[in-house]
Automatic annotation (TrEMBL):
<keyword id="KW-0472">Membrane</keyword>
<dbReference type="Pfam" id="PF09851">
    <property type="entry name" value="SHOCT"/>
</dbReference>
<keyword id="KW-0812">Transmembrane</keyword>
<protein>
    <submittedName>
        <fullName>DUF805 domain-containing protein</fullName>
    </submittedName>
</protein>
<keyword id="KW-1133">Transmembrane helix</keyword>
<feature type="domain" description="SHOCT">
    <location>
        <begin position="10"/>
        <end position="35"/>
    </location>
</feature>
<feature type="transmembrane region" description="Helical">
    <location>
        <begin position="85"/>
        <end position="104"/>
    </location>
</feature>
<dbReference type="Pfam" id="PF05656">
    <property type="entry name" value="DUF805"/>
</dbReference>
<feature type="transmembrane region" description="Helical">
    <location>
        <begin position="116"/>
        <end position="139"/>
    </location>
</feature>
<dbReference type="InterPro" id="IPR008523">
    <property type="entry name" value="DUF805"/>
</dbReference>
<feature type="transmembrane region" description="Helical">
    <location>
        <begin position="151"/>
        <end position="172"/>
    </location>
</feature>
<dbReference type="InterPro" id="IPR018649">
    <property type="entry name" value="SHOCT"/>
</dbReference>
Length: 187
């Protein structure tokens, strides 16, 4: 006996066949699966899909792009895209701004932090320490993407201007095709 959901799915399949969306062979195969009670093919969600064969998140998976440097924690070889860098920087700044806001709102009129503010500051400090290595590794991979040595990341050590110069470099698109540091991550 066919349940109501299978009957509705069969009607949808028949309509798709009549409209020419699916072929008669596809209709017959799907109908057999429905009648035999075989499970439907799993439908992949675009946010969890990986780009075909690259190991990179799908184009729409912004959280995946932001977390990718954490997955490649201390990987200083290879190349990284601008999207990976800027999504990571955006995510880090949003999290740090939220923690700082929590800490500042839990301050009394004398400037003393409450318990929640102290926890937020502690998490903020641990987060800065934890994000330091992935950030440096990401900088090195971004310079590799531009066919530059990873030692260019040391420009950050120049007082006042170093960070601005490095951010300027991060705006530059990487080399197309393979370079000395590996294959093109966008290919």
């Amino acid at each position: 006996m066919i349940d109501d959901e299978s009957l509705r799915n069969l009607e949808k399949l028949h309509k798709l066949k009549e409209e020419g969306v699916i072929t008669a062979e596809d209709f017959d195969a799907a109908k057999e699966r429905l009648l035999k009670g075989q499970p439907k093919r799993p439908q992949a969600l675009p946010m969890t899909m990986r780009a075909a064969g690259t190991g990179l998140p799908a184009e729409e998976d912004y959280l995946g792009w932001a977390l990718l440097p954490l997955k490649r924690y201390a990987q200083f070889d290879g190349r990284s895209t601008r999207k990976e860098f800027w999504m990571f920087l955006l995510a880090i700044n949003v999290v740090f701004a939220a923690l700082l806001t929590i800490a500042l709102t839990d301050t009394d009129y004398l400037g003393q932090l409450g318990m929640l503010g102290k926890v937020a500051v502690l998490v903020l400090v641990i987060g800065v320490l934890g994000a330091f290595v992935p950030y440096i590794a990401l900088l090195v991979r971004r310079f590799h993407d531009q066919n530059k040595s990873g030692w260019f990341a040391a420009i950050n050590l120049i007082p006042y201007l170093g960070a601005l110069i490095v951010l300027g470099f991060m705006l530059v698109q990487g080399d197309t095709g393979d370079n000395d540091y590996g294959p093109d991550p966008r290919a």
